[in-house]
Amino acid sequence: MSILLFVMLGVFIFMMFRRNKKTQQQQAELQSKFAPGVEVMTSFGLFGRIVDIDEAENKVVLELSPGNLATVHRQAVTKVVEPAAEPAAQPAEESPVVPDDASSLTTPESGSTAMGIETPEETMKRLNDEGKKDS
Questions:
Q1: Which of 18, 45, 72, 98 is deepest in the core (most CB within 10 A)?
Q2: pLDDT over 90 (residue 106)
Q3: What is the C-alpha separation between 126 and 120, in angstroms, rounded?
């Protein structure tokens, strides 16, 4: 029974060291991608572009927006943001034509709007008639 406990403890320690080694390897791979101009995300959710890297003090200067700089510890940068892939362009015949004016609101045969124009008197009559239907 005690041999089984030692074997389980040995497997547990082996798995722990293996996991730590894998994490360190991933961190080293991420750190190798750091260069000025690379889009990154910090561990606290800020997105920015690397402006400068100070190897001696483990600091990274990020540009969060034009003219807005932030200095963070190198380990706070946890992800390199890959640019989103552009969706494939649809052929012109499949995409609907959207006019840039109000011409789609009129019907071609009458020239009036699709919903119709109602005079104030017609509106009052319609509202009064609707009120009578409810009672």
A1: 72
A2: no
A3: 10
